[in-house]
C-alpha cells in the first residue's frame, strides 16, 4: 500500500472540486475522487499526471448508500484529508419548484455532507489527526430570493461547520476549514437552471482555480474560514449589518428568472 497521505475529494469532476483534486495530487496525496456523473473517470485520469494513486467513484452523495459506496472504495485506508465539496444549486421561485428537485438540493448539500463528515471525523478525532475542508458559501449570509433552498443549505453548512469546529476543539490535530466563495464560473448555474439570471450570466464570477487555491492554502494552515477574493469579503461584511429584507431584494435582482435581460 502507498505510503502517501490519502485524500477524499467530493464533487471533483468539475469546478472547485476538480481544482482541489489537482492541488492535492500535486502536493503528494493519493486520491479518491467522487462525483455523480461519469465525467469523474476522465477527471481522475487527469489527476494521475502527478504520479500519485488515483481512484474514482461515480456515486450519488445525496443518498446515504452513495456515501457508504464512497467510503467503501477507500478500502479501510486512513483518511488524512477530506474536501467535502459536492453541492447542488436550484434556481427559480420556491413555489414553482418540484419537491423532488428541492429535496435533492437539501439531501446533497446537507444530509449527505453531514453523514460523510460524521463518518470521516470520528476516526480523525480518535487518532487526533486530520484535515477537513467544507465548501460553504457567502450565499449562506444572504436570504436567497429565487434561490431560497440553496442559500438556506449554505447557511446551515456555514453554521454547522462553526459548531463542529468548537465541539472538537480539544482535538488539536484535527482542523475543519470552511471555504466560502461567491459566484464561481462553473457548471453550477447551468445545472441549477439559472442561465437566464443576472448572476448566471455575469462575467465577474470567480475562477475556480483561484477559489480552490485560497481554500487549499487555508486548509493547509488549519484556518477556520476563508472567504475567497476581496469582493466577496466586502459583500460578506456588508451582509452582516444589512437588514434581511434589503439583502433579499438585492438577491432578487441577481437571481430572478429573466433578470439577465433587465
TrEMBL record:
The answer to whether UniProt assigns keyword Oxidoreductase to this entry is yes
Gene Ontology cellular component terms for the protein in this record:
membrane
What range does the record give for the signal peptide? none
InterPro entries recorded? NAD(P)-bd_dom_sf, Sc_DH/Rdtase_CS, SDR_fam
GO-annotated molecular function: oxidoreductase activity
Q: Which CDD domains did the record assign?
A: SDR_c
Domain of life assignment: Bacteria
Ordered alphabetically, the record's keywords are:
Oxidoreductase
Q: Of which family is this protein a member?
A: Belongs to the short-chain dehydrogenases/reductases (SDR) family.
- Specify the protein name: Short-chain dehydrogenase/reductase SDR
Lineage of the species this protein comes from: Bacteria, Pseudomonadati, Pseudomonadota, Alphaproteobacteria, Sphingomonadales
